[in-house]
């Protein structure tokens, strides 16, 4: 199984991504979960991460709190998408498992140093603040990372928080720039692919039909997400952005993309946080990321539903 650290700002779709990982021990070994400010402020994201571990009956997983604001900007949150708590939808009990004492940035550094090079994968599902801080504080860890598989950015689909920027990158463009310039192999799940992983009514019914606390909670979470999305975008299903990351670790063949150059806009007010993806390779800039463009959505939902059924 692949050893991973999930860096996250739950978020209903983060929650589903975490549940999929925790349900798949033969493929994914979750070393720890680090929380970052993003969809909602840090006190809520670290709490939500623990709530999800307990929902999955995996209270032994260490949850670490990280940065409470982006590197050089004020925090932008997304309660308009995820609700006031970040996990609106199901009525979940407050967690009783403890938050770890170590700061998430130190946990990431210590964990990479403690493992052989090329054996730990980082899975960022929110703004890249914790990862960039760890790289700045301990540059020696960069060459130890096996891969970064992240949700963020967009190319043809442009933006969801501004006309040109996707939320995770927009919240901390400086951090994203550090990560994309790090030289670490990156797999990027942009809106272009996540907007193909839509929870249609039959897919939501399949979650609910699991008839387990996890299946029902996931159905309620995606119900909440969907209601929002229909009002705002007229789309017919909740996009499961972050689960694309953990599904890719289990079944990479469900996805396809291109190895290309990606740069992050950090200067222009108008296009701040835009991921400039050289999809057609019109520059000679070196490729630094595999940008995923397509997913076998039926295969993705079959895998997700089957795995969630184990919890
Ligand atoms: C990303 O932003 C958050 O709202 C979601 O959790 C996802 O990580 C989508 O733009
Ligand atoms: Ca997220």
From TrEMBL:
InterPro entries: I/U_nuclsd_hydro_CS, Inosine/uridine_hydrolase_dom, IUNH, Ribo_hydro-like. CDD domains: nuc_hydro_IU_UC_XIUA (cd02651). Residues 4-302 form the Inosine/uridine-preferring nucleoside hydrolase domain. This is Nucleoside hydrolase. Keywords: Glycosidase, Hydrolase. One of its GO terms (molecular function) is uridine nucleosidase activity. It comes from Shimia litoralis. It comes from the Bacteria. GO terms for cellular component: cytosol. One of its GO terms (biological process) is purine nucleoside catabolic process. PANTHER family: INOSINE-URIDINE PREFERRING NUCLEOSIDE HYDROLASE, URIDINE NUCLEOSIDASE.
């Amino acid at each position: 199984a692949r050893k991973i650290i999930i860096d996250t700002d739950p978020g209903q779709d983060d929650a589903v991504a975490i549940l999929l990982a925790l349900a798949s021990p033969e493929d994914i070994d979750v070393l720890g979960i680090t929380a970052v400010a993003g969809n909602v402020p840090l006190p809520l994201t670290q709490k939500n991460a623990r709530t999800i571990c307990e929902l999955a009956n995996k209270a032994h997983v260490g949850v670490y709190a990280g940065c409470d604001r982006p590197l050089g900007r004020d925090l932008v949150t997304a309660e308009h998408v995820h609700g006031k708590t970040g996990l609106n939808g199901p009525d979940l009990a407050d967690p009783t498992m403890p938050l770890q004492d170590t700061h998430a940035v130190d946990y990431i550094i210590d964990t990479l140093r403690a493992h052989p090079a090329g054996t730990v994968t980082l899975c960022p599902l929110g703004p890249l603040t914790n990862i960039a801080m760890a790289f700045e504080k301990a540059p020696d860890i960069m060459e130890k990372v096996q891969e970064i598989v992240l949700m963020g950015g967009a190319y043809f689909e442009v933006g969801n928080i501004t006309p040109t920027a996707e939320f995770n990158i927009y919240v901390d463009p400086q951090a994203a720039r550090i990560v994309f310039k790090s030289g670490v192999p990156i797999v990027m799940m942009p809106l272009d692919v996540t907007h193909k992983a839509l929870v249609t009514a039959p897919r939501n019914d399949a979650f609910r039909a699991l008839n387990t606390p996890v299946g029902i909670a996931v159905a309620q979470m995606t119900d909440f997400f969907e209601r929002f999305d229909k009002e705002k975008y007229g789309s017919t299903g909740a996009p499961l952005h972050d689960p694309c990351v953990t599904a890719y670790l289990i079944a990479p063949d469900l996805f396809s993309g291109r190895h290309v150059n990606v740069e992050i806009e950090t200067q222009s007010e108008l296009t701040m946080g835009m991921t400039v993806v050289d999809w057609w390779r019109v520059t000679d800039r070196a490729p630094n990321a595999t940008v995923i463009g397509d997913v076998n959505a039926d295969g993705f939902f079959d895998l997700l539903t089957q795995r969630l059924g184990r919890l």
